[in-house]
Amino acid sequence: MPTCPLKRRRFPVSAAPAAPREPRKEARRRQFQVSGRPRDERIALQVEGEGGRSPGTDGEVFLGVDVGSVSTNIVALDTAGEVVASEYLRTRGQPINAVQEGVRAIGEKLGPDVPLRWAGATGSARYLTGVVIGADLVKNEITAHAVAASHIAGHVRTVIEIGGQDSKLILLRDGVVTDFAMNTVCAAGTGSFLDHQSARLGIPVEEFGELALKAKEGAQIAGRCSVFAESDMIHKQQVGYPVEEIVLGLCRSLVRNYLNNLAKGKKLEPPVIFQGGVAANIGMKRAFEDALEVEVTVPWCYEVMGAIGVALLTMEEAPYMGESNFRGFSLADFEHSTSSFICSGCSNNCEVVKIKSGREVLACWGGRCGKWELEFDSPGGGMPRG
């Protein structure tokens, strides 16, 4: 069993300062140069080690799976915590199919001779994913993103994460999460806002970043609500604003919405890390730097940080686990059905999700009291969770 090279972390823990991390090789800490590159249905990221080969492919690897409403991100880490292979896919409302495709692709990249020992799941569909892949660890998104940011960026103090349907703000001190906030109800503070406006402008969202960098001032566009923002954008088009000024205005509108909803009463201190799919838009990086008046860093692996975080946590817990529950790369053949029912055990009337394979009930979750999670050997019961 491999010895985990990472110090044990718990969120939250006492405020005792963590030992300073040893300097990482410059090749590992290089920043990804964000550009308006095309994004197809599946984007593969690969980190090359010394000598042009992937690091750690001759040893054990750990799998991290982050499934959200828009994207599914999967990474494999070696025992040094370096990325061996990764996959970025569109979820398209079918999380199980996306997980199956992504895990199969990771298996093809690793080859048959690389032992994958343990697996972890995170994201909004983490419990479902945990059942499908046989996860040994299920963790919440805040913990996963915080661990990944600390691992990649060292002494990070502020983590900005914006995805397709939600956004997060995480504050850390000495590697410990001290505060966080999430926005899951307002589209104006998420990537879907830019997707919608790009469609109206007739410009691919991948080109927003380069256009925003060409702007001088940026049009003033409302950031409180996506409906009002669209009205403002239409007005700016009608009075003849250049498209690049409108695009920068949209980026700043999203930033204002994010800061107004998530950063109220919070002090955002550098170093600041910007991650999530929206970090691909370099115009958003500029807008955050203008608003915060500090440098904002986009890590090279901005799209898959959640998956990296849960893989690191799984690696950390591995010495204390028994035999892995991971189903292997053949899980692409996993057949399932999902349904729900209303629990009548009390006045809460919780909707409980049930997943079955054939006639066997694999897991239930969704109730407030947790009794259904405990009744089955599921991500809510048998596996470590957080």
H/E element sequence: HEEEEHEHEHEEEHHHHEHEHEEEH
Domains, number: 3
Structural class of the helices, strands and pairings? alpha/beta
Unreliable segments of 5+ consecutive residues: 1-57, 377-385
> Which strands sit side by side, in order, in the main sheet?
1-4-3-2-5-6
Number of extended strands: 14
Give the radius of gyration: 21 Å
Query: What is the highest CATH level, the class of the largest domain?
Result: Alpha Beta
Termini separation (Å)? 24 Å
What does it look like?
- By secondary structure, this protein is of the alpha/beta class.
- It folds into 3 domains: 31-154 and 305-330, Nucleotidyltransferase, domain 5 (2-Layer Sandwich); 160-304, Nucleotidyltransferase, domain 5, CATH 3.30.420; 337-375, no CATH class.
- The chain has 11 helices and 14 strands.
- β8 and β9 form a beta hairpin.
- α2 (95-110) packs across α3 (126-133) and α6 (208-214) packs across α8 (243-262).
- It is globular and about 65 Å long.
- The protein starts with 25 loop residues before the first helix and ends in an 11-residue tail after the last helix.
- The model is unreliable at 1-57 and 377-385 (pLDDT under 50).
